[in-house]
Design brief:
Order of helices and strands: HHEEHEEHEEHEHH
Number of strands: 7
Shape: elongated
Low-confidence stretches: none
Helix content: 10-25%
CATH architecture of one domain: 2-Layer Sandwich
Number of helices: 7
Strand content: 15-25%
Radius of gyration: 26 Å
CATH topology of one domain: Alpha-Beta Plaits
CATH class of one domain: Alpha Beta
Bound molecules: iron/sulfur cluster
Mean pLDDT: 87
Structural class: alpha+beta
Distance between the termini: 72 Å
């Protein structure tokens, strides 16, 4: 069936002679660009210059390490809550006071959607969102980050940990202190962040 084209739309803009030349509009566009050449730049020459990210930025999730050891107690909550099932782990027993640790902990970075839910549910502040966002893989295997790749010393994560301490669970405000309420059973010394 032939398609009927409506050439006479009542809303169609009527072009006069100047409009039909098109040059005025082209020069207007060029003038606009020219004006902006002398204004301060709002873009960065990435990757030579990188943005100064705030603590609220959610980069790749990492494991918090204390003196080379992961804080994680292998409770499995993060793996359970992760929407794309990006986290997998194997728990094992340890003689440390925390009793359990992840013998194997992996995040498939091709699956991760940077939602931050793992950080939200972790009762130990053992997994947090970092500032790192620029990494590439040459194959799918490289995208699976193991414990060694995930562990970052807590001193390098202090910006995020301090921010979490103030803003985590903000809806509950004064009546809900996540560190006290969420971590009732934690054996970690909570006076040290
Ligand atoms: S940030 Fe979200 S998607 Fe990524 S590992 Fe954590 S819970 Fe999973
Ligand atoms: S929720 Fe926290 S403590 Fe539990 S397994 Fe995940 S990272 Fe470890």
């Amino acid at each position: 069936m032939a398609v009927k084209i409506n050439y006479g739309n009542k809303d169609e803009r009527k072009l006069n002679f100047v409009h039909k030349l098109y040059f005025p509009e082209i020069f207007k566009g060029m003038w606009f660009t020219f004006k902006h050449m002398f204004r301060p730049s709002v873009t960065l020459e990435y990757p030579e210059y990188k943005p100064n990210l705030g603590p609220e930025f959610r980069g790749r999730p990492v494991l918090v390490a204390e003196n080379g050891k992961e804080r994680c107690v292998a409770c499995g909550l993060c793996a359970r809550v992760c929407p794309p099932l990006a986290i997998s782990m194997q728990a094992a027993e340890t003689d440390d006071v925390k009793e359990r640790y992840p013998e194997r902990f992996e995040i498939d970075m091709l699956r991760c959607i940077y939602c931050g839910l793992c950080e939200e549910v972790c009762p130990e502040e053992a997994i947090v969102m970092s500032e790192e966002y620029d990494f590439v893989f040459h194959n799918r295997k490289d995208a699976i980050f193991d414990k060694q790749k995930l562990m970052i010393e807590k001193t390098r994560l202090s910006k995020r940990l301090d921010w979490l301490n103030v803003f985590r669970n903000p809806n509950f405000g004064d009546v809900y202190d996540h560190q006290v309420q969420n971590n009732k059973h934690s054996v970690r010394d909570r006076s040290v962040r």
